[in-house]
Amino acid sequence: MLNYIARRLLYTIPIALGVTIFVFALIHLSGDPLSAVVAPDATAETVEKLRKDYGFDKPLPVQYLFWLGKALHGDLGNSIVNSRPVLDTLLAAVPNTLMLAVVATLIGFTLGCLLGGLAGYYQGSVIDKLATGFGIAGVSVPHYWLGMVLVIVFAVELQWLPATGMGAGGSSAWEWDWAHIKHLILPAVTLSVIPCGIITRTVRSTVAEILSQEFVQALRAKGLLHGQVMRHVMRNAAPTVLAVMGLQLGYLLGGSILVETVFNWPGTGYILNDAIFRRDIPMLQGTILLLAMFFVILNLLVDIVQTWVDPRMRRN
Amino acid sequence: MNLQTPAAPATIEISQTIANSPGYWSTVASRLMRDKVTLFFGCLLIAIVLSAILAPWISPADPYKTSILRRLKEIGYPGHPLGTDQTGRDMLARLIYGGRLSLFMGVTPVAIALVVGGLLGVLAGYAGGAINMAIMRTMDIFYAFPSVLLAIAISGALGAGIENAMLSLSIVFIPPIARVAETISTQVRTLDYVEAARASGAGSLRIIRVHVLSNVLGAIFVYATSLISVSIILASGLSFLGLGTKPPEPEWGLMLNELRQAIYVTPYVAALPGVMIFLTSLSFNLLSDGLRSAMDLKS
């Protein structure tokens, strides 16, 4: 097992390096990286001086290594807009996105397992058709629109829940009381729809496949009740479903930008959106690097846990 | 988001003979005809696509014509069956016209990715060795990003614009398609009848054209139809963030963004563009599911 973990780690390093090269390249995709900092009427000498100050006059590989070295030490540069370190701004926002993504994944996981399990167990029944329909609707719905619809229904029409934000005091004053939690409900439910749809579909097909295996017939022949058979099925389905859930968490962390924009939720997606429109390239780079690294590490963890639970999954 | 689809389909069956046997497509067609749900959403999709194409002839009004007097009217307002938007433009006309850009921006990246990803995958699978390593490990790097993040990163760095949005989406979809194409090509390469063809003197190009492509095309095509649904949501999502189309163009995602403030005045009208995105994406998803099960003759 240790051997396997070591090999997976070795395999992850080139990918992580590739990610850093891609993120580094973003600054040059945006055209002249200086255009965002230089005033349009700046003289040629000022531009040259700035180019030197930022190190843009050096060859690209040197620039990359320099940037990577700083990034490895936790220095992601300073924001062009407010000159504050990118990492500080990001670290303040990460807990908010994490909270949203974890709650959404938990909702999606619970509901998805329930619906998918029932659908897989009672194949062809009404509940199967409903769950399958729900699953496909969940993966087809544009969630930024769903967020708007939920705001229209629960905030504008019924006035039960607040439409945007994190409540009084913003993210620094967050507490797990109703006054704050009610701000979390709509964005978390919106974000949970996709993992819910995917987990419903995964659980349904996994359960259906396991039920068709011979050992299930043996269990039934032995006289086990529905619930007892289901317990065996669930134990066999767990590795696949947990892996899907882990990956979903990663997708939500990186993909919450649209929902955060709809709900003005002060997380990493909100920062990213802001950085794009102010052409704050260091901020953009830093956010994407951080989110992508989260995803790489999460992938690695999912793989290791999955292999640990079920050694047959070991990939070479 | 549902960008997660890039999990390559786990069970790719290599149809060794059925794909070429006469009557395969007619069997598939007759199976599709019996699938009522697929049929219904297929017709709905055709209706949406046709109304987008025929927009200049069927639209009841000019989608760009603003009116200060008729701003934010609810559904059923005389002369505007689906109400008006924040500058008094007719919603029905804008929804019909909006399909043009939304569908175009959603389908084109998948088509580009189908060609580029398919070629890369077949090349990697057929060549094997170092070429395979180089291509597939590069693809792995793009897999290290959640697809929404990748699309937003690229189009955010490139700047707003339809071309940039479509380019970034193409890059998102190339790796998953390449992975599917590579898996199948690698499997096909070692099949007995391909060995036999090689032994009887067939060149690489001929083997790829006759044996590899005939197996790869069907699979990546079906896979690509399922990606269109994701692509439509993402393309409109980019416009929703202001990274795709620019005003005053009618595009469902951008319309949704422009109407965000209108939810307090005309909530139902504000939600309409999203209904169109949802229906289109749902139709593509169901169509792809139906197609997949109709093409799987063993079920």
What topology emerges from the helices and strands here?
The complex is a heterodimer of chains A (316) and B (299).
Chain A: H1 2-29, H2 44-54, H3 60-72, H4 86-121, H5 126-140, H6 143-157, H7 178-211, H8 214-221, H9 226-255, H10 257-263, H11 268-277, H12 281-309
Helix pairs in contact in A: 1-12, 4-5, 4-7, 4-9, 5-7, 6-7, 6-10, 7-9, 7-10, 9-12, 10-11, 11-12
Chain B: H1 24-34, H2 36-53, H3 55-58, H4 91-127, H5 129-143, H6 147-158, H7 162-189, H8 192-199, H9 204-240, H10 252-258, H11 267-295
Helix pairs in contact in B: 1-11, 2-4, 2-11, 4-5, 4-7, 4-9, 4-11, 5-7, 6-7, 7-9, 9-10, 9-11, 10-11
In words, what does this structure look like?
The complex is a heterodimer of chains A (316) and B (299). By secondary structure, chain A is mostly helical. Chain A has twelve helices and no strands. Chain A has helices spanning 2-29, 44-54, 60-72, 86-121, 126-140, 143-157, 178-211, 214-221, 226-255, 257-263, 268-277, 281-309. In chain A, helix 1 packs antiparallel against helix 12 and helix 9 (226-255) runs antiparallel to helix 12. The model of chain A has no long low-confidence stretch (mean pLDDT 84). Chain B is elongated and about 80 Å long. Chain B has helices at 24-34, 36-53, 55-58, 91-127, 129-143, 147-158, 162-189, 192-199, 204-240, 252-258, 267-295. Chain B is built from eleven helices and no strands. Chain B is 69% helix and 0% strand. The two termini of chain B are 30 Å apart. With 299 residues, chain B is mostly helical. Residues 1-11 of chain B have low confidence and may be disordered. Chains A and B meet through helix 1, helix 5, helix 6, helix 7 and helix 9 of A and helix 5, helix 6, helix 9 and helix 11 of B.
